[in-house]
Amino acid sequence: MTTTDLLSVQGLAAGYGGALAVRGLDFAVAPGTIAVLVGANGAGKTTTVQVIAGAIRPSGGTIRFDGETVTGLDCPAMVDRGITLVPEGRLIFARMTVEENLLMGALNRRAAANLARNLDRVFALFPRLAQRRGQLGGSMSGGEQQMLAIARGLMAEPRLMILDEPSLGLAPKVVAETFGLIRQLNAEGITILLVEQNVRQSLQLADRAFVIEKGRVVLSGAGPTLLDDPFVKTAFLGL
Ligand code: ATP
């Protein structure tokens, strides 16, 4: 952990009704990089990113973003600072149109001021969403809903975009497109924190990856290096 990290998480603890799901978790994300959290089901990945996004209050530890302590702030305050979560399961508003879903991503003060420009930008990035701007979110395909969830996140002008299981339930071709998109957003300057079950593909693009077990980081390193790690091979790659 260094003073130049965009995000740093130290000793994080969080849980549900007294049961801790995250217990003393440490990791950091350097600006402009892609960081990946991997781990078995129930390891605490979603809880971790929900805390960073302000959706769950931590019971211990410190979160710093861009030099400021932001521990325990709520979602609007985190979004205002530039942290946006694209949640697991997409959480598209089914009875709202594509365009209305996008506008829901732009409720913070900074992004609201640039709404027209940001809408043009996401429609240029996702022409399919532009074509279907009047279609109900719930009638979009799984891949289109994932696209819409990412586009809605971009409407908030994130500096750190957190994506929780973006490839879940998608066809292999759409998974490849989603990983390509994540690379592209990163190349455009957005720092990425990715939670993934798809360990092989996510480690390939990770500048830094963290393996979580029982609410703690048990292993970390450059993504491609971890692909060769004996524990990672046995636990996640079926080798
Ligand atoms: P997955 O890959 O299955 O999504 P995960 O690593 O993201 O798993 P979490 O969803 O953070 O793990 O769950 C960590 C622990 O917290 C699990 O034991 C889970 O059962 C528990 N948990 C998660 N959400 C809740 C909740 N709303 N109420 C009670 N316990 C919860």
UniProtKB/TrEMBL annotation:
UniProt keyword Transport present: yes
PROSITE patterns for the chain: ABC_TRANSPORTER_1, ABC_TRANSPORTER_2
Key words of the record: Amino-acid transport, ATP-binding, Nucleotide-binding, Transport
Biological processes annotated in GO: L-amino acid transport
Pfam families, alphabetized: ABC_tran (PF00005)
GO molecular function: ATP binding; ATP hydrolysis activity; branched-chain amino acid transmembrane transporter activity
ATP-binding recorded as keyword: yes
CDD domains xref list: ABC_TM1139_LivF_branched
ABC transporter domain boundaries: 7-239
InterPro entries: AAA+_ATPase (IPR003593), ABC_transporter-like_ATP-bd (IPR003439), ABC_transporter-like_CS (IPR017871), BCAA_Transport_ATP-bd_LivF (IPR052156), P-loop_NTPase (IPR027417)
Classification via PANTHER family: HIGH-AFFINITY BRANCHED-CHAIN AMINO ACID TRANSPORT ATP-BINDING PROTEIN LIVF (PTHR43820:SF4)
Similarity section: Belongs to the ABC transporter superfamily.
Protein name as catalogued: ABC transporter ATP-binding protein
